[in-house]
UniProtKB/TrEMBL annotation:
Record-given protein name: Heme-binding protein 2-like
SUPFAM superfamilies: Probable bacterial effector-binding domain
Keyword list, A-Z: Signal
InterPro entries to which the protein is assigned, alphabetical: Reg_factor_effector_dom_sf, SOUL_heme-bd
One Pfam family it belongs to: SOUL
Family designation: Belongs to the HEBP family.
Gene Ontology molecular function: heme binding
Signal peptide (from-to): 1-16
Amino acid sequence: MLSLIFLTTVASLVTAVHVPTRTFPPTFCHGQDCPRYTVVSSTADYEERLYEPAKWTSASVTGTYSAAVSAGFGKLFQYISGNNKDQAKIPMTVPVLTKIQPGQDFIVSFFVPYADQASPPEPSDPDVFTNPLPQMTAYVRHFSGYAGDADWVANANALAKSLDNATISYHRDFYYTAGYNSPFQPVDRHNEVWFIKSD
């Protein structure tokens, strides 16, 4: 009888400390559509994620990082507000993803909502295009607060250093920034930098 009580107590303690598996979507998507991924592994410095193939709507823009993201966001916001061949209103998604590749234009992207993934409305602006991204493994570092240009660079450098120390192969010629919050949200902000695994 005592052993049964002991086993029952142990079982309840194990249940109490069990850490549940993260469900999708993560809380930092705030109920909006965001790209599906599986966490492959996690360290104190970064998370390794396997992203499913998905379509994004993108704009190619020039200028400094902040100016380019602002301009790209404006073009994409007009697209989801009806500046497309169907004149369709498209829900906002997260993150705002920006590809940074030295010497080339910035590519700012909105994730295409799941309802439109099969056939996104065709953009009317010649600078806006549907951008299918393949399945990919991303190494992701996150940080909080309002992110300025220097914050993105510092976190990208820190992530690169962590990956180099772990002798991980990744594309060094570009990386992504991912912002998940409206500029009017002062707290609980979530920002990410991504490097993509190379073969």
